[in-house]
Every structure is written in C-alpha cells, then in structure tokens.
Amino acid sequence: MSCFYKMDCEVPLMPTKPEIRIVLLGRYGKGKSSSAKTIQGQPEVIGPTETCQEKTVVIDGQKVVVVDTPGLFRCVPDPEKEKEKERVVTEMKKSIKHGGLHVFLIVISSCDTFTKEEEDTVEIICRTFGKTTLTFSMVLFTYRNEVRGKIEDRLNVKVWRNLIIQCRWNYHSFENEVQDPKQVTDLLQKINSMIEANRGRCYTHEMLQDAEKALEIKDNEKKEQEEKEEKEEKENLKENETDSRRNFIRTTAFLGAGGGCLMGYLFGGGTVTSSTLAAAGGLVGVLLAGGSARLMTVKNLCKCKT
Ligand SMILES: Nc1nc2c(ncn2[C@@H]2O[C@H](COP(=O)(O)OP(=O)(O)O)[C@@H](O)[C@H]2O)c(=O)[nH]1
Ligand SMILES: [Mg+2]
C-alpha cells in the first residue's frame, strides 16, 4: 500500500518513501565531497575529508542519508595506505551498523582515462566489502561538463563498459560546479529503481563481516603459501651449500694430495725417500682436506648458534 489515511478523515497523508542510505567511495580528489554537497544542496566543500561525514537531508519528501568518506586510496606510501584504508573501513562500519547501506556510489572523474588506478579502486572496494558490493554499486562520473560528448560515448571503451556492466548499468553523471537540482532528482530516481531491483535489500553489517572473514581466509592462505615458498627456498639453498662444500673438500683433498706428492718428490731429490715423502705429502694433503671440512662444519655450527 503506497498511501496512509488518517483514521478520522479522507485526506491521504503524504506517501512515505523509504529512507535511502548512500555512501560515496573512490580515490582522493575525484569529487566525493563535492558530490555529497551537491546531493545535500549545499555550497562548496571546505578542505579535505579526514573522517566519514554523515548527513541526512530530505529530498522530494524522501529521507536521504549521505556518508562522505576520506579518499580510500590517497596517494600515500603503501603501509600508510593500509592504515588509511583501515581507518575508512572502521568509520564505515559505524555507519553500516546504523542501518545498512543501499548504494555505494563509486565516484570517478569523467576526465580520467581508465587506468590501473581506477581498476585497483574497484578491486579494493570488492576486496574490502565483498563481491556483493557491486550489486549495490552505482558509478558516479563527476566533471560531466569537462568532457566533450556524452558520458555514454565513454562506455564504448571496453574497461569502462565492463565496470558499468558489473554495476548492472547503474551509472550517473554529475557536474558539481553548476547548480542543477535535476541531476540530483535524476540520481535519486535511478537509486530508487536500483533498490527496487534489489528488492529493498541493503548492504548489511553481516555482509561486511562475511567479507572480512573471506579476506582473512585469503590472507592466511597467502601467508601460508609465502611461508611454504620461503621454506622451499631455504631447503634448496641448504642443498646447494652441501653440494658446494662437498666439491670444496674434494678439490682440497686432490690439491693437498697432489701438492704433497710434488713437495715430497722435490725435497727427496728423486730417491726412494722421495717416494716415501711423496706418500707422506699425499697423506698430509688428505688430512688438510679433512681439517678444512671439519672447520667448515664448526663454522656452520657457530652460524646456527648466533
Ligand atoms: N569542474 C569540476 N570540478 C569538480 C567536480 N567535482 C569536484 N571538483 C573539484 O575537484 C576537487 C576535489 O573535489 P573533492 O570533492 O574535494 O574530492 P574528494 O577528495 O573526492 O572528496 C575540488 O577542487 C572540486 O572543486 C566537478 O564535477 N566539476
Ligand atoms: Mg573529500
């Protein structure tokens, strides 16, 4: 039933549309905050977004909760990027706990060519929030007036089209530099159709927990694989070391014995004594080889202890 009636009169009350909860995601500087302000009908953005900002507005009689987020993937060094991502996710969890999210607006600048960065953005969103995220996602192109031709022309590019297809052709474009209330009402209309197609379902806290569990399993598997590879590498290294040690002993024995024989022969002046001395020299050579092998073993033992 779409209308409600007061018990004592015939005048219908305003039909109450269900509340919509929107979150804006994307790279730093692509127009998330500007788009949030456009939806909220507010003027310019002041400074960068450091925390998630949630604001409720009523548009055409419908309550709309808009959550603006800091750039998930700000250009910072990798460990910092991880910290930043964790911070945004923590903030988002709070907002999801309040009542789930109907739409992830993936904000992309129309001026950008679809690069690895955009691909990564979508990949990270799916990895963080789970594959189901795309069921609840809509691509929002900003800087509409900056591109020549229609936004649809861009969809001829395979990578763009693939993304839109993954988002079930849910996309919209904004020009945040002009006051155009129609772009907001059009967006809401598309979002309402999308919610209807999703039968009113929204992205819940449980889905986030599932995604986190899946991510944890994947991370553990990755860690196990890395440990296995490291172990195999160490074993190979050890085997190579043993082989080279054997070769070293063999060479030392050969050289020692050969050298000893030569020395014995030379010092003995080519007499019978020389043969005896040569044999003794050979023996010394073999002993030398044995000694160096033992020395190497002791060295390795010391290495293991330190
Ligand atoms: N021309 C134009 N500039 C925009 C548009 N959207 C955002 N900007 C500008 O892009 C810059 C970054 O926008 P901001 O909303 O702070 O990006 P965020 O980091 O994704 O929140 C600001 O200087 C905005 O004025 C747009 O649709 N058109
Ligand atoms: Mg911002």
UniProtKB/TrEMBL annotation:
The UniProt record lists the keyword Nucleus: no
Organism superkingdom: Eukaryota
GO MF terms held by the record: GTP binding
Record keywords: GTP-binding, Membrane, Nucleotide-binding, Transmembrane, Transmembrane helix
Domain AIG1-type G: from-to ranges: 17-212
Spans through the membrane: 248-268, 274-296
Region (Disordered): 216-242
Family classification: Belongs to the TRAFAC class TrmE-Era-EngA-EngB-Septin-like GTPase superfamily. AIG1/Toc34/Toc159-like paraseptin GTPase family. IAN subfamily.
Name this protein carries in UniProt: GTPase IMAP family member 4 Immunity-associated nucleotide 1 protein
Organism of derivation: Larimichthys crocea
